[in-house]
Design the sequence.
C-alpha cells in the first residue's frame, strides 16, 4: 500500500493482511478517484468519513492532502490496530478518529454530517444495495457533500435518484452520489 499524494506521497505501508477480510482499493482505481476528487473537494476544509475503512488508505490520502477531520470506521480488530499504529507512525492521531464498530450500527447512531463519505464494503456483503439509502435517510452528507461507494459489477445503482456518476475500473466500480 502506498500513499499517492500530498505530504506523505510515496510512503509505503504493508498491512499484515494474510487473513484479513479486507480488499484494498487498487492503485488504478485510487489514483483515478483522487484525480476526480482533486477537482471537487477542498481537502483542507473537508470533513471525511471512511466506512469499512480496512487498511485506512483513504484516510491517509485525505490527511496527506491537508484534511484535519477524518473518521475511520471498521469492526475488524486487526485492521483497527494497523490503522492506529500507522496513525502513530505518521503522527496524525489528532486528525484521525478511529471507531472500531459495525458500520451499520455507526450509521444508525451517527449525528455528524460530512463533506465526503467513502464506503468500501466487502463485495459479498448482502446489504451493499441499502448503503446509499441509509446514508441519505440518516442525513450524513452536507448539502454539497459527495458519497462514493466502491462495489463490484454485481451491484447496479443506475436507477438510484441520487447517483451522479459511475466509473468502471475492471472489477472495481465507483458510484458517486450527491444529496
Sequence:
Amino acid at each position: 500500500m502506498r500513499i499517492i499524494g500530498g505530504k506523505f506521497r510515496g510512503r509505503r505501508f504493508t498491512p499484515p493482511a494474510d487473513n484479513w477480510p479486507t480488499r484494498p482499493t487498487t492503485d488504478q482505481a485510487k489514483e483515478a478517484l483522487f484525480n476526480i476528487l482533486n477537482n471537487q473537494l477542498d481537502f483542507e476544509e473537508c470533513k471525511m468519513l471512511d466506512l469499512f475503512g480496512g487498511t485506512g488508505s483513504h484516510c491517509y490520502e485525505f490527511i496527506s492532502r491537508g484534511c484535519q477531520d477524518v473518521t475511520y470506521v471498521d469492526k475488524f480488530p486487526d485492521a483497527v490496530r494497523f490503522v492506529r499504529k500507522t496513525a502513530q507512525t505518521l503522527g496524525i492521531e489528532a486528525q484521525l478518529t478511529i471507531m472500531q464498530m459495525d458500520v451499520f450500527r455507526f450509521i444508525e447512531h451517527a449525528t455528524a454530517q460530512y463533506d465526503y463519505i467513502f464506503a468500501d464494503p466487502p463485495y459479498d456483503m448482502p446489504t451493499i444495495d441499502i448503503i446509499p439509502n441509509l446514508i441519505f435517510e440518516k442525513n450524513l452528507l452536507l448539502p454539497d457533500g459527495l458519497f462514493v461507494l466502491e462495489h463490484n459489477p454485481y451491484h447496479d445503482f443506475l436507477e438510484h435518484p441520487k447517483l451522479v456518476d459511475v466509473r468502471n475500473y475492471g472489477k472495481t466500480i465507483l458510484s458517486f452520489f450527491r444529496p
Notes: The chain is about 25% helix and 25% strand. The beta strands are 47-51, 69-74, 96-100, 114-119, 141-151, 163-169, 172-177. The chain has a mean pLDDT of 93.
